[in-house]
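To illustrate the input format used throughout this study, we show a single complete record. The first block contains the structure-token representation of the backbone; no residue identities are included at this stage. The design step must infer an amino acid for every position from geometry alone.
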């Protein structure tokens, strides 16, 4: 018998146990083991029912994602689960933990399902750009109905056991030991002399309304999952469950799966799946390095960021003390925090007790001495170097030895801040994104002297507060904002040239960005970028058109949503953005005044100028060593900047377009646009000319 799958028969009940930590994924050894077990059972008569269960913390929680790139060796999941379903005696699955993907497909190929009350069951394949390819698209509608199956798979969210019971996805919920409950059901079925109850023999109960259901779901997909192929193909497969025989349906599922697995969307999503894990691999951080404990946290500044960051820690039960300069600032900050939590309570995502508990973990003080026992401080005061230096000197005087001094600065030189302390090795950048309690990205900025264990602690802390921590070295804007600079510059400039904000944002949103950049500026406040440029004149090029629109809007006090107008107007009752002819006329006039030749950039040009300038900057970041990997940049952009995951992030996208294509286009722009912005980064040039990719560059560095 295989190591990972065992078969035992006792009292005429066969038990097939999968034991392949950590999550019992349906990898090749597990499939071989299951095949052997069920082929073995087919030749035996000494049992009347079968229980399938998994050891460890969960039922099978998916497939082996690496196999999609290397090729899936036989037995294929679909054939294997057909074998399980074909068993002549009733097969009962015992579900605990999270049954996901192939795990759920195995469960529904079994004849009965008993779930632990904490179990969750889902088919999240679309998050990988594929559809359930092991019978799931054909069995799930037969089991719970077409509409419910569409809902489950389109959402990619696992169902709690109680909901699964309600839908008929599971037969029983076990109050205690799920394996014992499954065994009891198997015994009962055996005693009754029950035969198999195969999902494939069931009719799709709402199959008569398939045309309407699929049409409604298609409309939903067109609206909410723009540019995606896998959801469209999923609906094709689901429709097949109602119109085709089971065998034909499986064939359709398998044909679609094969197409999708190697398509760009799935490759992009797999790339990010691995990239999200790779961010923790940092030179100098070996397996023996120990992180420092974070038991208590201090925050300096009770403003927008300080408050959000405090919530991140309170949410995981870590006590926080916020220090500000005046009681009124503290009161206002704590008030905002309470309001945010109250919103969660009214939405039902948090109880009133949890609110009190979390608020109770957040203390406030005017005195730095109250930080004498914290393990970590995160400074989030105004973006002024002198102020930050003053605060770090004060922190240096009061913090215990070994405490970590973090700054949330967006633009300032962390090495310079670290110099005012006697412990620069303990200083690090912790760049949160607004709203800090919501945004999943944390840029961890490694300064010249940051100690490896401080970096490791920051990575662990990011994970603890459920954020993706990506390491950047020190530079103006770090990874994310530095790449945003050329992207926004082009977007704004095109408005001076004659495009409308809608055309620019529309083209970017059509590409898949969560929001066009000009609308983002309106949301964040147009003055934010403007003030940063004022404070950093050395970063502003000799170009009268550089972020000129932002300057004009800021000077007029049209700061975006908060002032009711910015690039757009926001004065309709629904506060949706609306075109502002006055702003458009002002900008076009300004363009002419500056001698910018008017042009009407096409959708393609808008996308290329914004996205390629960003990629070019990304190549510079790699060459300068600011970002460790192209895949890290992709994580930053998909986690923090609304870049579409299904395109894999800017650097993966560049590889799919072809670096030579991008390089050539940049050279063309160099001829027709401002050449100071359009010189290919040396790394982009090198890779483009030798026909290479950023992925290959990453792989070369990994060796
Ligand atoms: N707002 C964002 O979107 C964003 C995003 C990332 C990073 N950041 C950075 O975070 C930092 C804070 O930004 P914010 O938007 O939260 O600012 P904010 O103006 O909302 O809050 C700053 C707070 O710091 C307090 N403060 C000022 N001097 C202080 C001192 N000496 N001691 C203690 N408290 C003091 C102020 O009273 C205020 O409550 C800045 O460095 C900013 O660049 C901001």
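Output of the design step:
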């Amino acid at each position: 018998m295989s190591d990972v799958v065992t078969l035992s028969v006792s009292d005429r009940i066969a038990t097939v146990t999968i034991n392949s930590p950590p999550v019992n994924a349906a990898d090749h050894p597990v499939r071989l083991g299951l095949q052997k077990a069920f082929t073995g059972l087919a030749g035996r008569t000494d049992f009347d029912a079968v229980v399938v269960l998994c050891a460890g913390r969960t039922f099978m929680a998916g497939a082996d994602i690496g196999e999609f790139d290397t090729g899936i060796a036989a037995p294929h999941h679909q054939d294997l689960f057909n074998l399980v379903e074909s068993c002549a005696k009733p097969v009962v699955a015992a579900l605990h933990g999270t049954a996901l993907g192939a795990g759920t497909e195995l469960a529904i190929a079994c004849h009965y399902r008993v779930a632990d009350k904490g179990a969750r069951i889902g088919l999240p394949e679309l998050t990988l750009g594929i559809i359930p390819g092991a019978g799931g698209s054909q069995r799930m509608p037969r089991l719970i109905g077409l509409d419910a199956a569409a809902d489950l798979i389109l959402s990619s969210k696992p169902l709690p056991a109680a909901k699964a019971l309600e839908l008929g996805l599971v037969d029983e919920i076990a109050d205690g030991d799920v394996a014992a409950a499954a065994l009891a059901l198997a015994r009962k079925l055996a005693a009754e002399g029950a035969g198999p109850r195969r999902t494939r023999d069931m009719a799709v109960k709402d199959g008569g309304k398939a045309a309407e259901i699929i049409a409604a779901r298609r409309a939903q997909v067109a609206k909410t999952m723009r540019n995606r192929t896998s959801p469209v193909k999923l609906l094709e497969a689901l429709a097949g469950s109602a119109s085709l025989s089971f065998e034909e349906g499986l064939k359709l599922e398998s044909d679609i799966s094969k197409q999708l697995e190697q398509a760009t969307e799935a490759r992009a999503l797999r790339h990010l799946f691995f990239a999200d894990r790779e961010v923790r691999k940092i030179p100098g951080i070996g397996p023996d390095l120990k992180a420092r404990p974070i038991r208590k946290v201090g925050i300096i500044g009770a403003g927008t960021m300080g408050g959000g960051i405090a919530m991140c820690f309170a949410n995981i039960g870590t006590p926080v003390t916020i220090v500000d300069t005046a009681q009124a600032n503290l009161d206002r900050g704590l008030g905002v925090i309470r309001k945010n939590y109250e919103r969660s309570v009214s939405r039902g995502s948090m109880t009133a007790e949890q609110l009190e508990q979390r608020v109770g973990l957040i203390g406030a003080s005017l005195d730095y001495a109250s930080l004498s026992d914290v393990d970590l401080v995160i400074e989030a005061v105004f973006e002024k170097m002198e102020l930050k230096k003053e605060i770090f000197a004060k922190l240096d005087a009061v913090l215990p030895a070994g405490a970590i001094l973090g700054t949330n600065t967006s633009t300032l030189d962390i090495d310079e801040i670290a110099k005012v302390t006697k412990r620069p090795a303990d200083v690090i950048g912790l760049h949160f994104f607004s709203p800090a309690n919501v945004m999943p990205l944390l840029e961890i900025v490694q300064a010249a002297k940051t100690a490896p264990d401080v970096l490791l602690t920051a990575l662990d802390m990011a994970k603890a507060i459920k954020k993706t921590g990506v390491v950047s070295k020190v530079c103006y804007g770090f990874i994310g904002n530095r790449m945003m600079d050329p992207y926004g510059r082009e977007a704004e400039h095109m408005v001076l040239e004659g495009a409308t904000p809608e055309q620019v944002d529309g083209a970017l949103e059509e590409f898949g960005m969560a929001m066009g950049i000009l609308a983002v500026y309106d949301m964040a406040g147009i003055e934010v970028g403007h003030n940063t440029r004022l404070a950093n004149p050395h970063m502003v090029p000799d170009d009268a058109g550089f972020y000129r629109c932002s300057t004009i809007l800021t000077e007029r006090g049209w700061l975006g949503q908060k002032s009711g107008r910015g690039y757009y107007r926001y004065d309709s009752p629904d506060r949706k953005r609306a075109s502002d002819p006055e702003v458009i006329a002002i900008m076009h006039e300004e363009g002419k005044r500056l001698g910018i030749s008017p042009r009407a950039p096409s959708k393609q040009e808008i996308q290329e100028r914004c996205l390629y300038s960003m990629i070019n900057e990304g190549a510079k970041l790699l060459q300068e060593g600011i970002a460790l990997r192209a895949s890290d940049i992709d994580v930053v952009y998909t986690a923090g900047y609304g870049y579409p995951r299904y395109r894999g992030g800017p650097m993966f996208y560049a590889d799919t377009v072809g670096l030579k294509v991008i390089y050539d286009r940049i050279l063309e722009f160099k001829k027709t646009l401002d050449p100071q912005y359009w010189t290919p980064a040396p790394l982009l040039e090198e890779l483009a000319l030798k026909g290479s990719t950023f992925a290959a560059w990453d792989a070369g560095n990994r060796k």
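Structural context for interpreting the output: Residues 5-262 form a domain with the 2-enoyl-CoA Hydratase; Chain A, domain 1 fold (CATH 3.90.226.10). Residues 300-306, 323-325, 329, 380-383, 387, 391, 408-410, 432-434 surround nicotinamide-adenine-dinucleotide (CB under 6 Å).
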